[in-house]
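Subject: complex prediction, re-run

Hi both,

The earlier run crashed halfway through, so I resubmitted it with identical inputs.
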Amino acid sequence: MILWVKRSVAVWSGIFLVAFLYGHTEVAIIGGILNLAWVVDEKLRPTLRELIRPSMLIINTALSAYFVLKGEPPLLAVLIAGSSLLSWNAGLFLRRWRGAPLAVQYRYLKHLGAIIAVGLGAGLSALVLQGRFSLRFFWALLLMFIGGFLWLWIISKASRKESAGS
Amino acid sequence: MTGAWFLVSSLGLVLLLTGLLLKNATLLAMALPYFVFSLLPFWRGLPKTQWKVHRSIEPDHIWADQSCHMTVSLMNNGEDLEEVTLTDMLPDGIQVEGVPTYHGNFEAGKVHIVRYEIRGVRGKYEFPGMEIIINDLLEMNRQEEFLPSPGTLFVLPAIEKVEKIKISPRRTRVYTGMIRSRESGAGVEFFGTRAYVPGDPLRHLNWKAGARWDLLITNLFEQERVADVGIVLDARSVVEIRTNGESLFEHSVRAATALAEYFLGEGNRVGLLIYGRMVEWTFPGYGKQQRAKILAALSKSELGDHVVFKEFKNLPIRVFPPQSQIVLVSSLLPEDLYPLRYLRAVGYRVLIISPDPIAFEKRFLPQDEHTVLAEQIARMERNATLSKLRRARVNVMEWDVTLPLWISIRQSLVERRR
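This time it finished cleanly. Structure:
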């Protein structure tokens, strides 16, 4: 399951990046090849895999930052950064524990999802506060729901932990 | 913290600094997901751990071609662990069948058992304990622990059967055994005759001698007793030859094992002295317990260098009972001649089992005229040393290690009868 999460997120971040790099052919090719290699890194040699994993994160981050500086849409840059982080961490998990039980995989995805959601939420909130993009009512409501759900989940978990401790 | 944490934190920091330098708020916003990731270890630390470990090696003394079962049970008395990697630290040279590691989650109060099989070449193997790596599922936080759970495995040298070795020490012990004692008494070997005295068994009367001397003559028999045998294993590095991964010393250990097994099997009191790095002395004794002690000592014997023990002149002969039998297993050096002659001169009976270093090394050399010439020269030198020892009435048995020991012993017995 995690393998497909990693692959699909990596494909999306690759597509976003290549779309982002429209007009910069050489950089787009390099970014595209690296992201493609990252999507199918299981087929590569372990040494190469170890090299590609951090390279993908570093280069995706650098390219996103570069295009932010070029004045491209900031929302996509934050999304690419978030999805790169997600697929990179999923790759780390797969390296350590490829055949993890389903329960562990769910737990891992929950942890990762929560962290990415909090990170992206913080990034996007910062952008909204800067007035870099205006949210429509529907999206604002959806984000509020997600935020509220996460808040409730964290509070309930903390209270469960406390009651178990006492 | 992990390498992954450093990467994410560094990227976040670079974005932050670039954003600050260029006064670009979007870069600051981009840095936030990275910072959330890198703050994770501070927000959610690793759980506290408390372990209880038990190791069992069954059996803990094995032969070189055997395997043994290793079981390490680990109980988690701390909190639930999301991801843990347990690795049993293995000594060098051990072969493992199975997996000496565990990777997975570990709930509180649960016991996990790591089971695998091991085998190895002759030696003493110390298992120090387990390495435990705990990390969170996102690999942002990591903790390494070492949990001591010592265990020792002895891989004993293989025992070769030896048929018969004739020794005749000047002094024997009081118990009945297989070695001729040079004293008359109950035995099977003819020793002499004397005049009959009342009380002598009638079936021992020598009728032919009686008819000749017109007296009642009775046969005497030689008592057979056990003796003190001191086995000396030469573990000096200077006598070692190691070629193609084969070691001459291993053959010496094999011979010493076979000899100890034989002499103990005959009921003798056997001691072992390993002479090389230091003097490792196994006090003489009888029976199965002594056998186990000697095998354990031989299993951990190693070659070594020491200024004092470079030559046999510092052999601590006082540890051997006077006039007892000494069996030396050594490929010998020319300078060993005088100390061994001295041993013979002070009353010890000395038998040398000498693994032939020339025959051992020759197998791995190209068969050309240079090798033949070199062999001839080395052989002449060795023969000169051995014949000097034989003239000093030291019993030397040369052993071509490509043949089993018992064949060499049998050949040497046949030669002696001639």
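The mean pLDDT of chain A is 79.

- K.
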